[in-house]
Amino acid sequence: MSHLKTYFPIREGLFSKVVDHVKAVDDVSFDVYPGETLGLVGESGCGKTTLGRTILRLIEPTAGKISFYGNDITNIKSDELRGIRRRIQIIFQDPYSSLDPRITIGSAIIEPMQVHNLHADDAQRRRKVQELLERVSLDPAHYNRYPHEFSGGQRQRICIARALAVQPEFVICDEAVSALDVSVQAQVLNLLNELRDEFGLTYIFISHDLSVVKFMSDRMVVMNEGKIEELDQADKVYQHPQTDYTKRLIAAIPRGDLEDIKQSHQARNTV
Fold this sequence. Notes:
Helices cover 41% and strands 23% of the residues. By secondary structure, it is of the alpha/beta class. The strands form three sheets. It has a six-stranded mixed sheet with strand order 7-8-9-3-10-11, with helices on both faces. A three-stranded antiparallel sheet has the order 2-1-4. It has a two-stranded antiparallel ribbon with strand order 5-6. A hairpin with a 4-residue loop joins strand 1 (2-12) and strand 2.
């Protein structure tokens, strides 16, 4: 993306006159390379979630350019955008609100396949859903269960399966583990890494938690007030921060958080 801006108008008065703008994303430029995980970190309100949703055009950009494999998708029409959205998926923060409580998890996962006309028929789609459930360590026999019958970690696995259902190339993980406790976070993070390697996925991993972003990412973008503070290899940013803002983010990490995640990762891999 190049010089991307997403501004929201501030209106006042009887006629809602625009008096200023909130510059949620303010002249942001960076590349994401195939197969990598690019971490996007910053405090709440820094613009990282708005940036992720702007890339998907769930929020329309004010200015700038979004390119996907060399194609400008900034202003494409709805028909073309539907095809792009099959290739770019998003996993939201809250697995509770991401799933419709009125429909079964099988129906939630099969629906995007139907929308994008994937596979020959619903019988084949159902088999694919069961494969995906098994791949994210859920019981395929739970196809007809409802979201309220699952824990938070299980629901997030369902959301991951739904994102994978349309065979994407690029996935935006928007605070995908922040609603989970540390042990469950580790399981979901490990799963995301396994899926990246297995399916050749590319991630933007958004979080306010720098320790989690460091654990997941190849490179890291630090955002503050809609702008990029610094961008470099994740280990380099973590060990040798260049700006006072990044230093404060690192200093604010509760002692042991990154070690807890690493230990949970190691314990799971030795079972």
